[in-house]
Structures are given as structure tokens and as C-alpha cells.
Amino acid sequence: MKIKSILVSQPKPSTDKSPYFELAKKHNLKIDFRPFIQVEGVPTKEFRQERIDILEHTAVIFTSRTAIDHYFRIANELRIAIPETMKYFCISEATAVYLQKYIVYRKRKVFFGKVKFSDLMDLIVKHKSEKFLVPLSDIHKAEIPASLDKAKINYTKAIMYRTVSSDLSDLAEVNYDILVFYSPSGIKSLFQNFPEFKQNSTAIAAFGPTTHKAVKDQGLMLDIPAPIPSSPSMTMALDQYITKINKGK
Questions:
Q1: Number of C-beta neighbours around residue 43 at 10 A
Q2: Do β-strands 109-112 and 5-8 pair in parallel, antiparallel, or remain unpaired?
């Protein structure tokens, strides 16, 4: 059976240059995009119950743009004026630049890593005297608190937003040849929406070791793993798989 349709459990790419569109054209595919998960801000009332005083901290660690949005959202809702002396440590330069949405960038002390949290840790350790606030989702990488604890950093973990399953009920009667997942949360959402889901002839593609594990833990067959040496990106892995199946090899 030839591959004709793919559902990607992420938002539709914002640019026409996405390799997904090239893949669709190359193999004459129907590719739909649908986020299986979404982010919700923790209500201010709930955040208050964490008993965290934002102004007790002299620095903030941002691991994403979403963390920035919810940090300033909560500060605004609590009518807290963030002092100009606050220091910002960002996971990447792109994340740091995003701060301009909320602060006068050139007047603040902003530091950033090269994308990996381990790179940012080098900068954090150099400013060990600061008291750090770390805005996070309820689902976050264990590496973050583990690295801070190991370096004996004075920090507070603040859950300011959470990852929840999207409502996918309108997809109940829709079938795809391939389902593509990028996180364990996407797999969780699939079964929350469709508890009786059966894989049957549907191929499952998954990106990253934790997503691979989530697929297998649910008793599903992982047909298209990525990244692997022969296909470092998801679209490359899909391309190789579809080429093989559609040629009947």
C-alpha cells in the first residue's frame, strides 16, 4: 500500500520553505499539521500558592520564548515592576533577542548560551552569587534542575505554564498512513483523545529517544525513528521510508 497521507503533530510551518512541503511535492502527498499539545498559562491565583516572590530574585533563567511570555505575564498580573537591575540568562541568542518584546534590551544585563543548557551553565556558574528564578512548564527537562543542583546554584523553580493535550475529537474519523510525533506528550495526547487507538497499518514516526520510548511503552510499532545516522532529520527519515514503501521494496 502506497503512502499518500501524513499527519504531523505540530503547528503548520510558518514559511513555505519547510522541508515538509518539499516532501509533499516530491511524493505527491497530503500532509496535514495539527498540534497534539498546547501550552496554558498557570493562573495567577495558582501561582500565588507556590509562595514565590519574584522580586526576591536577582536573575532569571529562560529556556524558551514561552518561559519569557509567562514570566512577564505573571509579573504584569501581579502588578510587579521588574527592576532594571534584573539579570537575564537565556538558552540562546534568539531567545535573548526575544526579550526586546518586554524590556529595553540595551539597558539590561543579558547573557546567552549556544542552545544547549550545558553551555548556559558555564555562564550561570560565573555568576554564582545571584539568586536565580527559573520559569518552567510542568513538563520540563530533568537536566535543568539537576545541573543547577550539581553546581550548587541558589535557584527557585517556578511552574508558570503547563503542557496539556489538545482536543482532537474532530479527527476521530480521519485516517492517515503516517503519524509523526516529536514528544512523549504528543503520544500521551493521542491516547487521551483516542483511548481505543489501534495502529493497524498506520506507520508511526517519532523524533528523539524519549519519544521513541513513549511509542514503544504504549505497545506501538516504531516504523520511522529519527534522528539516526542515515537520516538526521525527520523529513529525511520520512523521505527514505516513503521511497522504500512506494517503490514496493
A1: 11
A2: unpaired
Render pLDDT for 139-176 as a digit per residue (tens, 0 to 9).
Answer: 888 889 999 999 999 999 999 999 899 999 998 888 99
DSSP three-state, residue 217: helix
Q: How far, in Å, CA of 74 to CA of 82, rounded?
A: 11
Q: How many helices (H) and strands (E) does the chain have?
A: 9, 11
Cell numbers describing residue 3:
503512502
Q: Would you tell me which CATH number, out of the four given (3.40.50.720, 3.40.50.10090, 3.90.830.10, 3.30.830.10), belongs to the domain 5-36+170-224+237-246?
A: 3.40.50.10090
Q: What is the pTM assigned to this prediction?
A: 0.76
Of 146, 124, 168, 135, whose CA–CA distance to 65 is shortest? 135
